[in-house]
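We emphasize that the prediction below concerns an isolated chain of 479 residues; any contacts that depend on oligomerization or on bound cofactors are therefore not represented. The input was used exactly as deposited, without trimming of termini.
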Amino acid sequence: MAEQKLPTRAEDFSEWYNQLVLKAELADYAPVRGCMIVRPYGWSLWENIQQALDKRFKATGHLNAAFPLLIPQSFIEKEQSHVAGFSPELAVVTIGGGEKLEEPLVIRPTSETIIGHAYAKWIQSYRDLPVLINQWNSVVRWELRTKLFLRTLEFFWQEGHTAHATLEEAEAETRQMLDIYTDFAVNEAAVPVIPGRKSASERFAGADQTYSIEAMMGDGKALQSGTSHNLGQNFAKAFGIRYLDREGVLQFCWTTSWGLSTRFIGAIIMVHGDDQGLILPPRLAPTQAVFVPIFKTDEEKAVVLDAARKASAALVAAGIRVRTDERDGVSPGFKFNDWEMRGVPLRIEIGPKDVAKGTVVLARRDKPGKEGKSFVPQEGLAAVVAKTLEEIQKALLDRARAFRDAHTREPKSFEEFQAAVETGFALAFWCGSADCEAKIKDKTKATMRCIPLEQEGGAGVCVLCGQPATDKGIFGRAY
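Result of the prediction step, given as a token string:
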């Protein structure tokens, strides 16, 4: 079994993260540099993320489909800004079946082009619109610097692709999906995010407008956690996606795309985790509660396991994801540490005295030591556990929001700005100039994360050049 000790987050946050992903058995390194194997525990977490998002997509009229992994290289080259943005990251197949291919095939870095080709065939009339499709798949981008979940050559995600009759409808779709990502992050993952608009230099290659949700990690750095793009008519013109309007006039469609990937698992780890390991939000945790039976003799074992199994069955019947740890040859202390490492929100301890009293001990993962422990009756346990899980969910969100707010400053000078991005976010007026944005990045290593949709209003001056500014941007160092 895995050695449990981790580096502390304070001494080496990056190595704490790397070791935690491996020791909690979320993922492992693959034989191909920069790729990852997602282990069953990590995949269970991803499945719960999928389900939470998928029900939201379907509730807003989106349907799932599947498009090919291989894309003709000529498709990628049709939209100029798209090919310029992705060319350095492409993986290209040139040989198939032992023969050199007439046209190289690109392993999809994203699917706008292949879907654009299909939409051009499927859409003829305004009656065919809107088209609202999502797919769950993996994509390949040849990253140079990789980190499990956060940045890998191949990663898993969903990518939504829609086509609309008007710019207004496309913009409404783009914003709706950003709202869905925000709702998911806050209410399912307990990750407080800032929804906002990207600067021109940070936009998706081929988009007219890009929106993102930005989260602060436990070391003060930013993580872009989901994006939604208004593609305008760029791909429609490149692929001939047109429709006859109500007046019989041929028009180009307006398209969108949006995606959230397995990097969100990295966000959950880095927002909530502590020096003992993961702390998973109950609504997404693969296992929400774990029974740890405690006994010394075979006679005690039989009695305790019987009580634990009955109590566990009652929790399962109430829809709670629960396990009973019946491993032999392993001490209760080891089991405690192991489940703490895996971030299970609630541990339920039961021994001979508890059986006799008709009680169990609840130990909350988010509150260490005695503070998180309570004795509760076995009768009505399912209701108590469900209530406790909701309390943990809220506590994690409150704690993450308090941390982000405490590490977000509104600098009045560039000196204050530089100090702010050393430890967190700077919320500062920016003139909108790409030149200022580039200089800020060069001087501080901080990037414009987004221009928050919620603005206080009023005017100010750019934190760097002093020119008039109307919008504040979130700046920070990022993963």
